[in-house]
Design brief:
- The chain is mainly alpha-helical and 58 residues long.
- Helix 1 packs across helix 2.
- The chain starts with 7 loop residues before the first helix and ends in a 9-residue tail after the last helix.
């Protein structure tokens, strides 16, 4: 049975999930699980609050 084709959006999302997984593995290896989980939760909170680029000038 052939694998289903992914849409461009699904391929893009899959790529981001792979990047998040790789970064998470690096953070765990360098600083442990607690740091990695905390950083990802904090990032999610910043996204939810619209603060992700608050200090960035464009």
């Amino acid at each position: 049975m052939p694998e289903p084709q992914l849409t461009q959006e699904e391929e893009s999302k899959d790529m981001f999930f792979r990047r998040i997984a790789e970064l998470s593995e690096e953070m765990v290896a360098a600083h442990g699980k607690d740091f990695s989980m905390g950083a990802l939760v904090l990032a999610a909170r910043w996204i939810a609050e619209g603060k992700l680029n608050a200090g960035k000038s464009n």
